[in-house]
Write a structure and sequence with these properties.
about 210 residues, alpha+beta, 6-stranded mixed β-sheet, 6 strands, about 25% strand, globular
Length: about 210
């Protein structure tokens, strides 16, 4: 009898955990970034974190500094545009099927983004990037709105030919139930692993062999 009670309590906790909504929101404003995380009814600010008090000069002198051992790590290869296109072709079909099963269980709110490209250095390249950006937004947003719950999307794009760097401001928040995220993750895990292994194999083949020192 006790075992049945324990199994019942565990089942209720599992159901409660699957129905709990979690998420995060990123806010960009005035060059600063704020990241808030939500778990159920609770919200936590994870970035920027609390500043640690600086130690005094006497305390810093008392603590002996340990020499840091430098470990040589092989840098992670950066994906090229062809790799990104291959990832989209590989991952989008299973991701779309997984999202369709959730019936728009993932919610994106708010979605208020202002992206101004800088075109002072190369106006022609900035104009080309702006065209690609507009095409991606007009093509991708209708697809995302069918698969996700996006109640009020507001995306503004422009070019500032007097600025050399892009300016991004706004807020993006995403929330979903834990059970929904687990279902989507299981649907995409195997195709993502296959693409990653294929990408690593290709990257190893393209890395030039080290030449002996003269």
């Amino acid at each position: 009898m006790t075992a049945l009670w324990i199994l019942g309590i565990l089942a209720l906790l599992l159901v409660w955990l699957c129905l709990t909504r979690v998420g995060a929101q990123v806010t960009l404003s005035g060059g600063s970034t704020v990241v808030d995380v939500r778990f159920g009814l609770f919200r936590f600010r994870v970035f920027p974190g609390k500043k640690k008090p600086k130690a005094s000069k006497e305390q810093a002198a008392e603590k002996p500094k340990k020499p840091k051992e430098k470990k040589e790590k092989q840098p992670m290869p950066k994906p090229t545009l062809a790799d990104i296109k291959d990832a989209v072709r590989t991952l989008w079909p299973p991701l779309k099927r997984a999202l369709d099963r959730t019936r728009r269980g993932i919610r994106i709110h708010p979605l208020t983004v202002s992206l101004i490209l800088g075109g002072a250095d190369d106006p022609a390249a900035a104009a080309e990037q702006y065209g690609y950006l507009q095409a991606g937004i007009w093509t991708g947003m209708p697809v995302l709105e069918k698969a996700l719950d996006i109640p009020e999307p507001r995306i503004h794009t422009d070019i500032d030919f007097d600025a050399s760097k892009p300016l991004i401001e706004g807020a993006v928040g995403i929330t979903a139930r834990i059970g929904t995220l687990v279902g989507v993750g299981l649907g995409v895990a195997i195709p993502a692993l296959r693409w990653f292994l294929r990408f690593r194999k290709k990257a190893k083949q393209t890395v030039p062999a080290p030449q002996p020192a003269a």
